[in-house]
Amino acid sequence: MTPRDYHHPKTDELTLARVLAALSDPTRLEMIRRLADGQEHDSLELADDLPRSTLTYHTRMLREAGVTWTRGEGRACLIRLRRDDLDRLFPGVLAAVVANTGPGVAQA
Q: What's the pLDDT tens digit per position in 20-79?
């Protein structure tokens, strides 16, 4: 099995507008809340009861905005926050989002 290759924007390509747009969706906010523990998570752990196509759409939006890193391992799609890049470029934004994202935000 060939590993999947995911495109990630370079750090100097990240913009606050794209990051905020990616974080503007309740489903993606819930994903960020789950990723805030600093661990790498299988994409299937990031949202409950979503069709795979919807899950793929949301994880792609986060990755293409530069909010997450994604890598394939076997059949798993492993995702983690780009916390270092985001904190350096946009200090306090990620912390504020996480602090104001409680459990179950996706149902809001």
A: 999 999 999 999 999 999 999 999 999 888 999 999 999 999 999 999 999 988 888 999
The pTM (predicted TM-score) of the whole model is 0.87
- For 11-100, CATH number out of 1.10.10.10, 1.25.40.340, 3.40.190.10, 3.40.1190.20 equals 1.10.10.10
How far the first Cα of the chain sits from its last, in Å, is 39
Closest alpha carbon to 12 in 100, 92, 61, 85: 85
